[in-house]
Design a protein that fits this description.
Layout lengths: L15 H11 L3 E4 L2 E4 L11 H13 L7 E9 L9 E10 L3 E11 L5 E12 L24 H12 L5 H8 L4 E5 L14 E8 L10 H11 L21 E5 L1 E6 L9 E11 L2 E10 L4 E13 L5
Antiparallel strand pairs: 1-2, 2-4, 3-6, 3-10, 4-5, 5-6, 7-8, 8-11, 9-13, 10-13, 11-12, 12-13
Helix pairs in contact: 2-5
Length: 317
Amino acid sequence: MVFAMTETPHDGRLANEQLVSGLTRLLTVEKRAADIHVGRPQKDGVGRVFGGQVLAQALQAAQASVPEAKTAHSLHAYFLRGGKEGIPIEYRIERDFDGRSFSNRRIVAAQENEDGTFSPILNLTASFQVPESGLEHDASPMPDVAAPETLKSDMEMRRELADKMGSKLSDVQRSFMLRPRPIEMRTIDRLHWMNTEPREPNAHTWFRTAAPVTAEADSPDLHRAILTYASDYTLLGTSALPHGLSWMRGELVGASLDHTIWFHRDARADEWLLYCTDAPWSGGGRGFNRGRIYNQSGQLVASVAQEGMMRKRKAKS
């Protein structure tokens, strides 16, 4: 899920193409020195940086440091502290290993403080491999679920919920709920913000970019970065489902603690992908979540795991 979701003023006239173009710019890091890259802040962002943004920018920095022949097959990250919106993020790369088949990169994401010092906000390690053929099996077939074309978009459901809740939502909550997103989602089940009754900790959501990725920005590396960005949506919320509580209703306090992705095969982020999440455990102020991402052909594209802080918000005295 998050450090915290970015609150961005919404403009209903903003075209989907502009949203996706903005996302590709956001995930394009700038090289400042040898093994130092900088990621730009979210335009008009307020509050804390979305965790998926930092994950994706860190991956992009790592991908820029390996030969084109090698592609990312996994990343493992720990969130250290909440990043601040409006401030660029610096990504420093350590080239820990370069072999014939595999390479490993270690990235520290940090932001500058008012006194000129830097505070790390994320540590990420990524592994890369020269693609090769090998023994294959797939023991996790894609669930038989409704096709995305038959479902309402999550934004439609958000608008309906916002109208239903009326004055119960503050202006900040309403803006947060209805802000335009570069990732279009269509949920088959009921996510935490749609649900007040305890239910099984399983969810299935189709997602893709809200418009095609433009040709000049198109690359497998960019699609892996966008998939990484989107993988932070819905995941932590799965562990809230058995409790019938939601961050959006102000009932929970939470933040991502770590995030792991294994990339099994290339996939286009502007074509429908199915995100299947489950949460086998929660306790001790934490929730553990897993995810499987499939393409429409039923092939397993990626596997995800995340643990996050999850606490019931205490009522103010």
